[in-house]
Amino acid sequence: MSSEIPMRVAVVGATGFQGGAVARLLAERHHRVRALTRRPSADRPPLPGAFFLAGDLGRPEDVRRLFEGTTHGFVTMPLVYDPEQVEEYALNVAEAALDAGIVRLVFNANTRIPLGPTDVAAFETRRLAERVLRDSGVPLVVIRPPVYLDNLFSPWNGPALVDEGLLAYPLPASARTAWLSHRGLAEAALAALTREGLEGRTFDVGGERSLTGGELASAFGRGLGRAVRYEELDPAAFERALGRLLGPETAAGVAGIYHYMATGADPLLMADDDGVSTEVLALAPAPVEEWVARQPWQVWSSDTSPLR
């Protein structure tokens, strides 16, 4: 299989940041993209080259229509952490993918997943979805990302980074993390869709190398051309702020990952995998400072003068 051979790809989650990045890269590489959405056309993100179908992941007939005639599939679950609902979504995807006879399905788990069971819904619902998809017999590759650099290019982090040199995030400063961009996820997804002999494998994808909070701040400082310091944000405060945007239930699901990391139970959960995924998937993630230097940080600045 080659990334140059045209694919027809069903992308679940294409209206989100992660699935959207994958859909854009696929369209750039001249693959045909089909996406399922509940959003009205006026509220959809711009995805040139993608064909949208109105529908719901919870309705089997809608998911079958999405996969009909496709050769491949990519799945990012929505920010839902109810086990029954996630299992229903995964079953609908598995059945539709099998009916369509797709060559390969790539499942983005949204996060790394600890080896053993936890009481964290964000981990266990994704573990459940993986199991449902794998047990179905669909040709499956799983990618598990760490934390996204794009989370830091936001109204919550951008102004403090640009104006104060403050990088506040709810990860322990000592937690070594292989920060990844949404574009990096898309490149990993494309490789997982197209490289030969990957069925059944799971990859802890990530950036060039693992960074502590202080090392991340130094990389941001090099990219921004100013001193940057890292500050551990209280996961509870992060959850409260997120709740005002997404609602308390979704915020609790997302923040569960950071509450878990704060316990120190698995300090290397978000770290790199010793280069396994980059070698097998033939990835070349850019250093963090290069990603930082490419972003238009001035949009968050209270000062209109150039940053550098």
From TrEMBL:
It comes from the Bacteria. Coiled coil: none annotated. Pfam families: NmrA (PF05368). SUPFAM superfamilies: NAD(P)-binding Rossmann-fold domains. Gene3D superfamilies: NAD(P)-binding Rossmann-like Domain. Belongs to the NmrA-type oxidoreductase family. This is NmrA family NAD(P)-binding protein. The lineage of its organism: Bacteria, Bacillati, Actinomycetota, Actinomycetes, Kitasatosporales.
